[in-house]
Give the backbone structure.
Amino acid sequence: MTFEETIHYRRSVRNYTSDAIDTAKVKHCIELATLAPNSSNMQLWEFYHITNPETLKQIAVACLGQEAAATAQQMVVFVTRQDLFRKRAKKMMELETQNTLKNSPINKQEKRIKTWKIYYGTVMPFLYFRFLGIFGFIRKIFVNIIGIFRPIVYQVSENDMSVVVHKTCALAAQTFMLSMANINYDTCPMEGFDSRRLKRLLKLPYGAEINMVVSCGIRNKNGVWGDRMRIPFNEVYFNI
């Protein structure tokens, strides 16, 4: 399929056939999902590929028994890991240092490496640290003062940063679903689930949050609920 055909093919499928799907192909689509754009390349995500039949049944219960979960052949749970910000920032600082040494002119390397160390060694930990909302409040005061003198991002509260991490994870989920559609596999993103039950089932740590559950399979004849509806384009498109 062309990319446009893939976009048109992808639908939220709520009933799957009993036909098995290839685990390796689904795994490859998850690998493609890791190439999705993400904020500061921090990659604060994890992907749980569920193939065990008994676990699938338990997850279907946690997903409130909805048909898209109960008939799924496999599932992928997209999880945010803001609590790993220090580990990921350190990894990115090492990567960007190597990128600088490899691709930058020698006379600019020292300055650029210093910039990356400040960004990933100081700025990222400052933005992603959480403590009962208090640190986010401190960040808000800080940026509001700086904003008097120059443009700056104001969305730095602890809730704001959680939104950033979830937006990033959602981009990966969309990339996954398009990758699946490209090989004629179907998916359905689900936000209706018991997050506490699901976290216990997957043995997720306290700092992890579930972004969405995506069921996978081959669509049944009644798997798509009617024609696709979208708001008229001229109501949502503004050329400025």
